[in-house]
């Protein structure tokens, strides 16, 4: 079987290795892929993940049987629509479903329409109107770029002056291009965050293991938002009681809302949640696997990931089990200094043979001599596993000690909040 994966980061690396685990004879093509993926797949760096005509032409020419579209941009642009219309089976939602991530205002209106708990909000396309609202708002205030911004288009501001600077940066300076031409100003919620990925085939939805991401670049949740600096699973906040609340008030109403709106969502639906004093609320939806959540959730998944993908695409998710090992996992993201704004690239990466099985490569390239070097903001992910969360976090940081490259940066407190919650502090 020939299978294509669209994307190039740690998430795609983790998906590829999990697919090969149960299907070692799979012929895997990654578009564009990264240099480390060439160890187990054919990469195609000349093809951009957002170039729909080029991807379509490649899949036709190579007779790709199945395609996994994972990044947000190609999903929102309608890549799955184009591939499926050409007869190529895909895992990933069509454009209509991807708009849950492609537009924050669309997602908020969807939640309001279907009674799904979320923060109060207002949407603006006019800078002056947004500024007038911000000047009379309660603080802290959350300002979000409406469109896709690589997980970085969210700012929490503490006063009206900071709000004005952020709005100017988003709406007038076009920090995220068209994605921030429209903004959502949202009530600030407090409480521990929970990420829940789920498989959805339009009629059935099955949640994966819960996790806790760490978005800010520095220890203690300081600094700007990033795509994610580390993650643990399972999330101790996601107790049996919280899970019941999630299923009854959020997950099932979301599926019912999609069906009511005529959206046949087939792929991975990500729920970004916050457990507030007034109950569980949705912070955001994503229409794809999270990064780095995927890196800790998939290794603990039992069974054949390809069979699950095929069942989702065929609308037969109900027929396959989605079960997980009773273990814990942790991931520490090793980034380049200067990330997320100005990462330093070109540093040679060295690591011991012992830790190689625990590495997930993301922003990397190879020199002419074949040496692995940093080539992006988030360079690689370091995993750790254990029977307990404490063991998993300790294992991940032990592995970090054996990876070296100049100007590396990583948080030293991944899992700390989760461990405090678990200990009842």
Q: Can you summarize this structure?
A:
This protein has 425 residues and is α+β, with helices and mostly antiparallel strands. It has helices spanning 10-22, 52-61, 72-77, 79-85, 95-102, 104-113, 127-135, 160-172, 240-260, 293-297, 305-314, 389-400, 416-422; strands at residues 2-7, 27-32, 42-43, 66-69, 89-91, 121-124, 141-145, 154-157, 183-187, 193-201, 205-213, 216-218, 222-225, 230-233, 266-276, 279-286, 328-336, 350-351, 359-361, 364-366, 372-374, 378-386, 403-404, 408-409. The strands form 6 sheets. Strands 10, 11, 14, 15, 16, 17, 19, 22 and 24 form a 9-stranded antiparallel beta sheet that branches.
Kindly describe this structure.
By secondary structure, this protein is an alpha+beta fold. It folds into four domains: 2-94, Rossmann fold (3-Layer(aba) Sandwich), CATH 3.40.50; 126-181, Dna Ligase, domain 1 (2-Layer Sandwich); 193-324, ATP-grasp fold, B domain (D-amino Acid Aminotransferase, Chain A, domain 1, 2-Layer Sandwich), CATH 3.30.470.20; 328-423, Glycinamide Ribonucleotide Synthetase, Chain A, domain 4, CATH 3.90.600. Helix content is 31%, strand content 28%. Strands 10, 11, 14, 15, 16, 17, 19, 22 and 24 form a nine-stranded antiparallel sheet that branches. Strands 3-2-1-4-5 form a five-stranded parallel sheet, with helices on both faces. A hairpin with a 3-residue loop joins strand 12 (216-218) and strand 13. The chain starts with a strand and ends with a helix. The mean pLDDT is 96. Its EC number is 6.3.4.13. Residues 108-314 form the ATP-grasp domain. It catalyses: 5-phospho-beta-D-ribosylamine + glycine + ATP = N(1)-(5-phospho-beta-D-ribosyl)glycinamide + ADP + phosphate + H(+). Its cofactor is Mg(2+); Mn(2+). GO terms for molecular function: ATP binding; metal ion binding; phosphoribosylamine-glycine ligase activity.
């Amino acid at each position: 079987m020939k299978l294509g994966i669209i994307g190039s980061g740690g998430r795609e690396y983790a998906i590829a290795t999990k697919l090969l685990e149960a299907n070692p004879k799979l012929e895997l093509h990654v578009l564009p892929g990264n240099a480390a993926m060439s160890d187990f797949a054919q990469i195609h760096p000349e093809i951009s993940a957002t170039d729909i005509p080029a991807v379509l032409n490649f899949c036709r020419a190579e007779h790709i049987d199945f395609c996994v579209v994972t990044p947000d941009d190609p999903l929102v642009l309608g890549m799955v629509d184009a591939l499926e219309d050409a007869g190529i089976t895909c895992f990933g939602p069509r454009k209509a479903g991807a708009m849950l991530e492609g537009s924050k205002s669309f997602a908020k209106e969807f939640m309001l329409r279907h009674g799904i708990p979320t923060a109060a909000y207002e949407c603006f396309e006019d800078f002056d109107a947004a500024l007038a609202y911000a000047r009379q708002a309660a603080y802290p205030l959350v300002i979000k770029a409406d469109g896709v911004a690589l997980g970085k288009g969210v700012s929490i501001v503490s006063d009206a002056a900071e709000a004005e600077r952020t709005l100017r940066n988003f709406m007038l300076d076009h920090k995220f291009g068209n994605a921030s031409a429209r903004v959502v100003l949202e009530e600030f919620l407090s409480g521990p965050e929970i990420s829940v990925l789920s498989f959805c085939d339009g009629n059935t939805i099955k949640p994966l293991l819960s996790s806790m991401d760490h978005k800010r670049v520095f220890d203690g949740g300081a600094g700007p938002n990033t795509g994610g600096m580390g993650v643990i699973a399972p999330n101790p906040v996601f107790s049996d009681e919280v899970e019941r609340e999630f299923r009854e008030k959020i997950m099932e109403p979301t599926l019912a809302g999609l069906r009511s709106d005529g959206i046949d969502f087939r792929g991975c639906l990500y729920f970004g949640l916050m457990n507030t004093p007034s109950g569980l609320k949705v912070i955001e939806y994503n229409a794809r696997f999270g990064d780095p959540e995927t890196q800790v959730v998939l290794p603990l998944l039992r069974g054949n990931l390809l069979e699950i993908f095929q069942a989702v695409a065929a609308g037969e998710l109900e027929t396959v089990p989605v079960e997980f090992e009773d273990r814990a996992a942790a991931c520490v993201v090793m980034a380049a200094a200067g990330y997320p704004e100005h990462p330093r690239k070109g540093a040679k990466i060295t690591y011991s043979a012992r830790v190689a099985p625990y590495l997930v490569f993301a922003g990397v390239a190879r020199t002419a001599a074949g040496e692995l070097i940093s080539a992006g903001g988030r360079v690689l992910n370091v995993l750790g596993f254990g029977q307990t969360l404490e063991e998993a976090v300790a294992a991940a940081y032990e592995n970090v000690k054996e990876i070296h490259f100049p100007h590396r940066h990583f948080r030293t407190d991944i899992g700390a909040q989760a461990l405090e919650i678990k200990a009842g502090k």
